[in-house]
């Protein structure tokens, strides 16, 4: 059987040739970085590196992203241009993911634009990941998104996740935003404060969560109840018991679940009393579950 020479095969295959050229380019740049001879002012070189984020091989794209991250903020303008204008969504996705690695605060408005306007859902998700990684400089823009009344629910959800991810880095903004007129903002802030309280269990944080149990919006009340339950915050038990008398079933359900997670036997008697007068079957089931779990 005749063996085909691998070099001849590469010469005959334009894809293999292109891959070989790309790999050689990456080795060259990596060597320059290692020897400290890389020129961060070489715009043609940086453009070519960004263009290589469209390589068909996932691991190769990752290596180029890591190389651009090593170069750092000098690569940011070229990545931002690709994020905004490149016709290939693979390049736009990789550009956003690389900006996550660099975490350059100057990228925030461009990432927000991609989140709100790019047609590709992966680009949107990668952009929110970069915003979360950048942290505090992105918080106000995320709060503005949460306060908007004309954005899709998926975008609002992305922004709430990023805010919670930033956590303690957003703390000062959260203290102000909990007084927002927007219930969506207040709900997201409650979720973020719960995340901060896990990392820094300070009284002032728990006070905000407890106060949010009486918010005028049912979703905010339920978010606060869930947070206190997940944190197993026993001082909130009397406040949660009070919620068992709220007029809406969602709040009563959330209170019962929270008391179940806190797990203190002091809640059994109030739960039994609430069960006797609970009008909704679904909430009755949750209260029964809470009582049995605490017992």
Description:
It is a single chain. The model is unreliable at 1-6 (pLDDT under 50). The longest helix has 21 residues, at 14-34. The chain has 18 helices and no strands. The chain is 72% helix and 0% strand. With 295 residues, the chain is mostly helical. Helix 12 (183-199) packs antiparallel against helix 13 (203-211).
Question: How many strand elements?
Answer: 0
Mean pLDDT: 93
Poorly predicted regions are 1-6
Radius of gyration: 26 Å
Share of residues in helices:
over 70%
In short:
The protein is mainly alpha-helical and 295 residues long.
How would you summarize the topology of this molecule?
Blueprint lengths: L5 H7 L1 H21 L8 H9 L6 H14 L4 H10 L3 H14 L5 H10 L3 H14 L4 H8 L6 H14 L4 H7 L5 H17 L3 H9 L6 H13 L6 H7 L5 H14 L5 H10 L3 H14 L1
Helix pairs in contact: 2-4, 4-6, 5-6, 6-8, 7-8, 8-10, 9-10, 10-12, 11-12, 12-13, 12-14, 14-16, 15-16, 16-18, 17-18
